[in-house]
Amino acid sequence: MQHRSFIIAAGLCMLLLTGCSAPSKTESTDLFAMDTYMTLKVTAPDAEGLLQQASDRIKGLEDTLSVTRPDSDISKVNAANGAPVTVQPDTMNVLQKAMQIGKVSGGALDITLYPVLKAWGFTTHDNHVPTPAELDALLPNVDYTQVQLSDDTVQIPADAQIDLGALAKGYTSDAVMDIFREGGAQSAIISLGGNVQAIGSRPDGTPWQVAVVDPFAPSENLCILAVEDRAVITSGNYERYFTDEDGNTWWHILDPATGYPADNGLVSVTVVGTEGLYCDALSTALFVEGTEQAKAHWQKAQDFEMLLVTSDGTILLTEGLEDCFTNLSSMPVEVIPRA
Ligand code: AMP
Ligand code: MG
């Protein structure tokens, strides 16, 4: 009798093991959202369902976070004339990170730069160089410390306006990773306009090979980073820029101290870490901080890795990336040691 029940129990276990775990499939999709091309690829039992959920989540976050959507939380805050506005938890999560990185970067990341970005036309693809008088009029309202957050409300001065363009994509890639993980994916990679985030390794067990663009020749790759379970997020002066009639080039990452494009020795910054939101906020902040401050920032924080490309054509790599880095360029490489 005991023998028979053992056989039945063993049979049930086999059924559970084989019948309940459907085989994984790899599926991918492309979409355009948040003003950028996105590619999602996932290996999971219901890969197609997860891609659909992820696409819906991305569009939902765009509706909530985008400064160019008139009904977004951000547009409501910007139109509130100084009154507090109740926002969704997603918006609050991004704002809290923006405040935190604003502080640790000494104001290099400042989400209240929006009126200045508009003056340069970077948000509307209608670029022109603002006059010094225009910038002087706008800069006094640029100060992220004036943003007041409570549990679910945001309040900014009547003359201030905010924009989460520097970190919303990082939050979005974290949100997609959450959907994939909850859906049982052990392998996935997404690229939101060059911001890459991965779950696990490639389906064959080898690390993901993430290419970093050559900022001096954006159609070429500078190097490869071999990573698992990481976000690899780049801010570069080649992503959005224009050249004026005098031949000067101006790019979309501005120095809040001057209102002009940040020109502190760097042409691109790639941040590697476990959280997309943190890496995205940092990539923009470190670009503004410039070479020396970025090094000091990394040595103090020690919870991310970075690859800097300097304006004079050197690749600076933090120690933790040394083993996963393959140089495809002829640029010299220097390793930044831990202090
Ligand atoms: P990213 O590509 O992540 O570096 O984000 C750059 C975008 O963030 C720009 O296109 C602007 O919308 C916005 N931005 C530019 N400079 C700053 C800054 N210093 N602080 C916060 N946001 C910025
Ligand atoms: Mg960023």
Polypeptide structure, described:
The chain has 339 residues and is of the alpha+beta class. Among the domains are: 68-155, T-fold (Orthogonal Bundle), CATH 1.10.3980.10; 207-336, ApbE-like domains (T-fold, Roll). It is built from nine helices and 17 strands. The chain has helices spanning 2-19, 47-65, 73-78, 89-104, 114-120, 132-138, 168-182, 276-289, 291-301; strands at 25-33, 36-44, 85-86, 148-149, 153-155, 187-192, 195-199, 208-214, 217-227, 231-236, 241-243, 249-251, 266-273, 305-310, 315-318, 325-327, 333-336. The strands form four sheets. It has a nine-stranded mixed beta sheet. 42% of the residues are buried. The model is unreliable at 6-19 (pLDDT under 50). It binds adenosine monophosphate (AMP) and magnesium ion. Adenosine monophosphate is lined by residues 109-111, 113, 117, 122, 163, 165-166, 235, 239-240, 252-254, 256, 280, 283-284, 288.
Question: What shape does the CA trace take?
Answer: globular
The CATH architecture of the domain at 207-336 is: Roll
- Helix % is 25-40%
What is the CATH fold-level name of the domain at 207-336? Answer: T-fold
End-to-end Cα distance, whole Å, is: 69 Å
Main CATH class of the domain at 207-336: Alpha Beta
